Amino acid sequence: MADAASRLRGILEQLLGAPFPVRVRTWDGSEAGPPEAPVLGVRNRRALRRLLFKPGELGLARAWVAGDLTIDGDLYTALDRLAGSIWERDEDARTLAQSLRDPEFRSAVRRLFAMAGPPLPPAPPPEEVRRPRRGLHTKGSDRRAISHHYDVGNEFYEIVLGPSMVYSCAYWPAPPPEGTLEQAQHDKLDLVARKLALRPGQRLLDVGCGWGSMAIHAAREQEVNVVGITLSQEQAAYARKRVAEEGLTDRVEIRVQDYRDVADGPYDAISSIGMAEHVGSERYLEYTTVLHRLLKPGGRLLNHQIARRPQRDEESYRVDDFIDAYVFPDGELAPLGTTVTLLERAGFEVRDVESIREHYALTLRRWVANLEADWARAVALTGPGRARVWQLYMAASALAFERNRIGVNQVVAVRTPESGASEMPLRARVWGAPGPA
Hints:
Elements: H1 4-16, E1 23-25, E2 31-32, E3 39-42, H2 45-53, H3 57-66, E4 69-72, H4 75-85, H5 96-100, H6 103-116, H7 139-150, H8 154-161, H9 181-196, E5 203-207, H10 213-221, E6 225-230, H11 233-245, E7 252-256, E8 267-273, H12 284-294, E9 295-308, H13 321-327, H14 336-345, E10 349-355, H15 357-373, H16 375-382, H17 384-402, E11 406-414
Parallel strand pairs: 1-3, 5-6, 5-8, 6-7, 8-9
Antiparallel strand pairs: 1-2, 3-4, 9-11, 10-11
Helix pairs in contact: 1-6, 2-3, 2-6, 3-17, 9-10, 12-14, 15-17, 16-17
């Protein structure tokens, strides 16, 4: 088939009703589209079959993970352009029946089927996890979901995260190249410790402790006693090794334990950094209630959590197909207001909310750079499909934070006693001086 790129581009523009925003290269070596634009490589006809049998985000994700689609040029520019034309049009799937009544649309679909070849739906890539979204967030299902995401090899995470091994938003003094990722992660852990007002001898519960970075920081820098909990066996083994190497086994205990099973409170403070996204809306009030019970009166909670924008009809919210199938099975994002409300319903007094959205975009771009700089070893450790999952997930997430499609917030909440003595300073944060009129 001569010049498949021009034919495919014409079909895509007819289906989208708009110019296709990137250049297209097809399996026959032909190219079509703006010469200065990033190039979407359609390496085989199977990519088209994936899109036809699973239109929208999931079909594109499957083609990307399987290596049927590639991008040459700036990945962020390509994803940003494609998002407006394709990914953000997923909601229009409800009008597919109306579109199919259009003779030109039906003609474009028939031509796309003809280009795709024999109409057999390709099997999903092996990296995909698909199961019914029912019976969510039991202890067993949470354990399996956490294992899928985190038990992919600690060496792989060392490549992506760098020496800090902190898998949450760093806290940058200024946009890179000022400062390093490691220093920005240290500053984030220090920020959490200061917001919790940790003092020597106190007990800290670190919920979702990851590879132990917060636990080690608090024990070493603030001389507190820490219990860190995770559902990942690989994380726990790695964290225990780091704790031993730091000589902190007398201050830090790492457990493989569900937050619902912690029964040795009260704690002086609780940190939950990048964990609450796994809890789910059905369990979130239970989660906040458990943390409230585990805190002593006057104790503080620092909840660091990604938030989505609220929808006019919250009942219509659905989990992102790509994220659910490949990255965070059963994960859910909630609007900031919902999180604050559920903390208050559990009995907390919310004292401070800080958005650090731009910081996460900077962090993700650094993680992508780390992955791409050591791509061959990452592929050797996890396989090409898994490496492509992480490349796409982190790059697309960086853009989502930059465009304010999602955010991340640190919420400080207190289990304020009946006396009303919160032990919070009158001025919890110091803002910069106002500028000239």
